[in-house]
Amino acid sequence: MSGLAYRVDGQPAGPEAFYARACDPARSVAVEACAGAGKTWMLVSRILRALLDGALPQDILAITFTKKAAGEMRERLQQAVAEWSRLSDDELCAALVMRGLNEAAASALVPAARGLRERLRQHGRPVQLRTFHSWFAALLRGAPLSVLQELGLPPQYELQEDDSAILQRLWPRFYAALAQDAAAREDFFASVADIGRHQTLAALRNAVAKRVEFQWADSAGAVDGAVRPLAEQMPDWAEAGDDPVAWLVLNERFRAELMAAATALGGFSKLKKSEKAARELEEAVTSGDGRAAISALTTAKGTPLKLGAQPDALPAVQAAHARIEEALQAERQQRAWVHHQRLARLTRVLLSALAELKRERGWVDMNDVEGAARRLLGDAELSGWLQQRLDARVRHLLIDEFQDTNPLQWQALYGWLSAYAGAGPGQAPSVFIVGDPKQSIYRFRRAEPQVFRAAQAFVVEGLGGSLLACDHTRRCAIAVVDAVNTALQRAVDAGEYGEAVGAAFRPHTTASAQAGAVLSLPVVPREARTPTEAGDPSAWRDSLATPRHLAEDLMSEREARQAADWIADEIAAGRLRADEVMVLARKRERLGWMHEALRERGIASEQPEKLDLAEAPAVQDVIALIDALVSPGHDLSLARALRSPIGGWGDEDLAALAAAVRAAGAGARWWPVLQDAAGSAEVPPLWRDTATLAGGPGARHC
Q: What is the spatial distance between Cα 479 and Cα 483, in angstroms, rounded to a whole number?
């Protein structure tokens, strides 16, 4: 797709006007930019412009979401100032024009731009390029003791960036709390009986993941009323209690309506289905069985029973169907309210156990850090005091990948920035946020694309800033952009796009001249499967002889094999190399199927590790080597280091070394025997090379 796609405050604009507004450090802007539009480039360019305008490095705070991304921003900034120091006047002027300056202003700033690297070196204070959590943690370290006490945080604490260790210790405490609290224990067992143990624990784990939001909502009284009780939601069913279905045949008015429907149906005795429904309905009402009354007029799926065109059109039958739907709706409402109240009470027990555990251990997690940041930044006096304490008077705030911001992080920022709403020019920090709601993939980390919309509105209305949009990518080939436009436009037409991201879709354009290609494999057919393959929980399976095959897993395996076959064919035809292929999946475990399918076809592939970094085999090999160097008597670590790719030894080499150690006599160790072998011509060359690298004869430490 040709053409450009830039907008400034809702109006089409050229790239010059767009970048002049986006890179101007004196103006607050919210930029929505597609993949490949140069979001990080814009952010770094704005930092450079702010430095050229005289801003001190420590007055600039750029926030992103990962340490890797922060490192990338730092590297780009360093590369830019280093490159500027070497460019000619014309080249440097062109670089400044690209960043929104006109020719005259760019020419005037050439000397300052060339000297920017030296100025930063002499100043000594760097630009603040941080993650949300590292900045929030710095705020917490400077918090007054009274605030820590108010938040229930210990004055001396250990920050836990990964709360997995905390949660592992939480569940035994939770079960112990249930054992001591009869009401909570009853809630837990009732929930297990209602939705199952797995779903109950999953709900509680979700509550723990959003514990700060839950506690704030609970303190405001919003949790208990989040699901309305039946009497408020459906006043006609206020007296139904816990069993609206039973009330369907106990209420006199409802009973009369059902009996009228039975009488009407009974008048069509020529239709056996109508006669059967009438008889079953009358018997159910007479015996007071509400569930049977519903079954008489509905299918197994709960839809109204089709009784022929004429009887189905009878007003009495239609009224009965409507009343049955009301009963089922009332039942769902009552169950939802009971479930919500039950889980809310269990969540309070769980969070109380969590707070007690963290107090005992002196732990503070990242949720505590975010909550503390909201409290500290939301207080104007505290916020100013903290900025002085940290010696960081932020005048330029820049946030990358804003679509990944969660509501709590935005609340913390909003509490700080809202104090400047309506202030005159130069009074408030200039704010630059950039992101793309279409790329919001971190819902599991509580990211919410609607937060982006709220921030955009605040930048425009509260700070008097501009709303920019860039739908022009420099990265993607033409066919890829066309495919994106087609797929997203279909989502718009189906009503599946706007509500999800809170905005209308705008077609993308590209600067790429490459045609590119988007290929699709045929749909994997859903073949007939046995009940156990289809995941039927009621089907009997001999677990000792028959493995359980879940339908989803079977489809994933078949899809992986199909994709692996296509890759193998492309490689065999010379159209692809293995290192040119990247496979993406919605879930990491699905990549296991793909990895196995490629391995079966002799195609090398790298599967993302499921282990922590410290547990990765390569890291364990390095640790073994360090252990052997630090502790020469640790033979097992030395054996692992030698056998690993670091040493390159084989099993025969290790066996020979072990034999040499035994021949050296009692008490001999592997490390001295190996090093002494460096001067011998009788040992294998691999031994001499390894021993020489380790320090040669007589060396005992490295």
A: 6
662 contacts 634 by C-beta, under 8 angstroms = no
- Among 217, 219, 225, which Cα is nearest to 408's? 217
Decide: 312 and 306 in contact? Cβ < 8 Å: yes
Contacts of 342 by beta carbon, 8 Å cutoff, 6+ apart = 187, 190, 191
154, 362 contact by CB (below 8 A):
yes
Distance CA 231, CA 498 (A): 34
Q: What is the pLDDT of residues 428-454, one digit of tens each?
A: 889 999 988 877 766 556 667 788 888
> Any idea where the domains of the chain sit in the sequence?
6-133+369-475, 160-361, 478-518, 519-608, 614-694
Number of neighbouring beta carbons within 10 Å of residue 129: 25
DSSP 8-state symbol, 403: G
| Sequence-ordered alpha helix ranges (H) in 443-584 | 449-461, 478-493, 498-501, 551-572
Structure tokens at 306: 């089709």
For residue 419, give Cα distances in angstroms to 108, 387, 415, 423, 430.
Answer: 36, 14, 7, 9, 13
β-pairing, 128-131 vs 60-64, is parallel
Position 301, amino acid: K
One of 2.60.260.20, 2.40.30.10, 1.10.486.10, 1.10.565.10 is the CATH number of 614-694, namely: 1.10.486.10
Asked if 353 contacts 170 with a C-beta cutoff of 8 angstroms, the reply is yes
Most confident of 492-501, 504-513, 688-697: 504-513
- 6-133+369-475 folds as Rossmann fold (3.40.50)
CB contact set of 618 (below 8 Å; sequence gap of 6+): 645
Residues 6+ positions from 267 with CB-CB distance below 8 Å: none
Rounded CA-CA distance 692/697 in Å is: 8
Q: Which two tokens stand for residue 275?
A: 């006669």
Which amino acid belongs to residue 658?
A
d(CA 184, CA 194): 15
Structure token pair of residue 101: 């300056």
Number of residues assigned to the chain: 702
Q: Are strands 6-8 and 466-470 parallel, antiparallel or unpaired?
A: antiparallel
- What separation, in Å, do the N-terminal and C-terminal C-alpha atoms of the chain show? 61
Taking the C-alpha atoms of residue 561 and residue 598, their distance in angstroms, rounded to an integer, is 8
Please tell me the distance from the alpha carbon of residue 501 to that of residue 438, in angstroms, as a whole number: 7
Burial of 698 (0-12, 13-18, 19+ CB in 10 A): exposed
The pLDDT tens digits of the residues spanning 600-631 come to: 888 888 766 555 566 667 788 888 888 877 77
Question: Whole-angstrom Cα distance, residue 347 to residue 223?
Answer: 11
Q: Which amino acid is at 110?
A: V
